[in-house]
Amino acid sequence: MESAGSPGPTIFLHIGTPKSGTTYLQSRMVANHEQAKEQGLLWPGPAWKAHVEAVGELRELERGRQLEPDGPWLRLAREAREWPGPRVLISMEWLVACRPHQISAAIESLAPGRVEVICTARDLLRTFVTQWQEMTKNRRPWGWSQFVEEMLANRPGPVCRAFWWQQDVPVILRKWGKLVSSERVHLVTVPPERSDPELLWQRFCSVLDLDGTSFLSPRHTNDSLGVVSAGLMQRVNVRAIDQGVADADYKQVFQGTLAINILAGKRGAEQAIAVSEEVDTWIRARAERMVKKLRRLDINVVGRVEDLLPGSALEGREPDDVDDAELLDACVDALVSLGLSQLQALQRARAKNQQLRQQIAALRERNVALSRQPDARGVRTRIRGAMSHGRAGVGRLIHRRGDAP
To answer: Averaged over 21-32, what is the pLDDT?
Structure first.
């Protein structure tokens, strides 16, 4: 699959996992892509949307089919292959869920570049709760009880499949490792809670051979929801699905405006999501098994594999402990905030409309002024006469006007 001594650049595929600092890393690369380029690292796009669209197409590729020649993935791959510098970075956490034929198509499209894989991962306890709240921001209708029961029973249902397809790190690395040699697979562990926030960035940059110490921190981060807001979004999802809200409309209104712009900002006033003692025990046992499997893999670990073992117990409460009165208060607050955001959008639209009206009025006044100039009527008469004689008449008129002093 790979060609030794290939003349192309080294192309790093940062495949996830979700909720392992990916948004922070991606946003920081977007904000500093010019500085990265000066060090020989290309962040193609450079808007991250190009990575999202490319991986979205790749994930939809069916077995036996070909990627569109002018589609988003092959456009991104072409930009990566043609980079004259030594390194390229493509980052999108949906890559963790790629099937073998999709991984093969991605690697083949990047030849003769040398593909290396970066997988970021965090401890299973924090991942467990953040992954569920992330599902509530992405149109998933599964309540907390369904999530916990299916996970602990390890039943092959939609919840369990969705979680482990993105978070079973040993399985993910073995899947990619079948097509990328082990020395080119890097596991970057997210440092324990309360560690220096720069440490993850430093670990990530060390794989890329990048000095990112002077890179600006990003404005955008993927903030988690508090326990009440997450419960509210889960109920919103159930109603949105029942009423047939289209995915694109959901992303714009419910995910973008309600979850990200409104509810995420209320996290400081809410408790975080925690788990019961039973769930905590189960997660720690499962994390131990995962770490043992990772130790047996011949890959490059940046950080400590022990970082993936849970630390202290989570502080907060379980979503099922939230009562209806709290949900009602959160709903009223969100409704008012949503109304205010729509009012602001309406005010911006009215201001833009007024500006356009003023521009139209100014153009009309100019047109009237031009029509009152002494020669305006004669010019119009000559143009109409020339046009009645076809192209030759117009040509003679232009020639006479060109000779005029």
So the answer is: 95
**Location of structure tokens 């189960």:** 282
List, in order, residues 6 or more apart from 49 with CB less than 8 Å away. none
How many C-beta neighbours within 10 Å does residue 315 have? 9
Structure confidence by residue, pLDDT tens digits, 100-130? 999 999 999 999 999 999 999 999 999 999 9
The pLDDT score that the predictor gives to residue 372 is 78
User: What is the fold, at CATH topology level, of the domain defined by 10-122+167-221+286-308?
Assistant: Rossmann fold (3.40.50)
Q: Which amino acid belongs to residue 90?
A: I
The single residue listed with the structure tokens 């030849």 is: 111
383 pLDDT more than 80: no
**366 burial level (CB within 10 Å; 0-12, 13-18, 19+):** exposed
Beta bridge partners of 302: 188
User: Helix, strand, or coil here: 65?
Assistant: coil
Strands laid side by side in the 87-91 sheet: 41-42, 87-91, 10-16, 114-121, 185-189, 300-302
Q: Where are the beta strands (DSSP E) in 70-154?
A: 87-91, 114-121
Question: pLDDT digits over 318-338, tens only?
Answer: 999 999 999 999 999 999 998
In angstroms, the CA 403 to CA 405 distance is 6
pLDDT value at position 378? 58
Which tokens belong to 238? 């159930």
Alpha-helical (H) ranges within 196-270 are: 198-208, 227-242, 247-249
61-71 pLDDT, tens digit each: 999 999 999 99
Q: Please give the Cα distance from 41 to 89 (Å, whole number).
A: 7
Whether 156 shows a pLDDT value over 80: the answer reads: no
Cβ contact 164:171 at 8 Å? yes
Domain ranges of the chain: 10-122+167-221+286-308, 225-271+323-392
Omega prior to 213 cis, within 30 of 0? no
> Which of helix, strand or coil describes residue 166?
helix
